[in-house]
Specification:
Blueprint: E1 4-6, E2 10-15, E3 18-23, E4 32-36, E5 39-42, H1 43-52, H2 54-58, E6 61-62, E7 67-70, E8 80-81, E9 87-92, E10 95-100, E11 111-112, E12 126-127, E13 138-139, H3 147-156, H4 161-164
């Protein structure tokens, strides 16, 4: 695949785990990196994706309690997971935004923790190969994350309320 760029701020290129989003400029903590665009589909449509092409299903972002955002053909389809992410997904109105949760340098892969968009009612899981020192080895839904991680992610604003509503959130 040829490199895909987004306004000279991001590119898609080979990374540790296939293709990924790489910063072309510095993003400071809390900066919006980009909007995750795509079409909104039902949970039933995502289940059909598993039968047609599992990669389509794996790339979908949970959008609300019953819908997903399918980023096929958009830069968001290359958003990779890390157990030590430098970005997170926030929902503002009807938009999903990728936001820096730490400073990101040019040439650095932009990653987020998939668990932040997997409610307690999500059964999807994957083996992790992120390479982070704190790698959990298995990515599952947010309800099985360590309490300290959930607290940190909540403080950063990267677990949407519709995801928090699916499990009992820690108070600290």
């Amino acid at each position: 695949m040829e490199e895909t760029s987004l306004h000279n701020t991001l590119t898609v290129r080979p990374v540790r785990n296939g293709q990924g989003i790489v910063a072309l400029k510095t993003f400071r903590q809390n900066a919006v990196i980009c909007e995750i665009k795509g079409k909104i589909v039902s949970a039933e449509a995502v289940w059909r994706y598993w039968e047609i092409d599992p990669r389509l299903a794996e790339n979908c972002f949970r959008y609300d309690a019953d819908h997903y955002l399918d980023p096929d053909g958009e830069i968001g389809q290359y958003a990779n997971h890390s157990c030590n992410p430098n970005a997170g997904i926030v929902k503002k109105g009807r938009r999903l935004l990728l936001k820096a949760i730490s400073s990101i340098a040019p040439g650095e892969e932009v990653t987020h923790d998939y668990a932040t968009l997997l409610g307690a009612d999500d059964v999807w899981k994957m083996r992790c190969n992120c390479g982070a020192a704190n790698c959990r080895r298995l990515v599952r839904n947010v309800s099985v994350l360590p309490v300290a991680v959930v607290g940190k992610y909540r403080q950063l604003g990267i677990i949407p309320e519709f995801i928090c509503a699916t499990f009992k959130t820690p108070t600290k």
